[in-house]
Design brief:
The chain is of the alpha+beta class. The protein has one helix and four strands, in the order αββββ. The strands form two sheets. It has a two-stranded antiparallel ribbon. The chain has a two-stranded antiparallel ribbon with strand order 3-4. The chain is rod-shaped and about 65 Å long.
Length: about 60
């Protein structure tokens, strides 16, 4: 098995592992019907519209 020729520095190993500890970003778009923030390609939970059509009946 291959062995490293020299020890990896602390900054190099931390730089490599930094991707594992990065927070997960959630994309947010604006609903064209009501203007509330929503996830893209999902039904708006505020008004129930998706793609210009009403999908869900939202009771107010």
């Amino acid at each position: 098995m291959a062995e490293p020729k020299q020890k990896s520095s602390r900054s190099r190993s931390h730089h490599r592992r930094a991707k594992n500890y990065r927070p997960i970003r959630v994309t947010v778009s604006v609903c064209p019907n009501c203007g509330e923030p929503k996830e893209p390609h999902r039904v708006c939970l505020h008004c129930g519209y998706y793609g210009g059509k009403q999908i869900l009946e939202i009771g107010e």
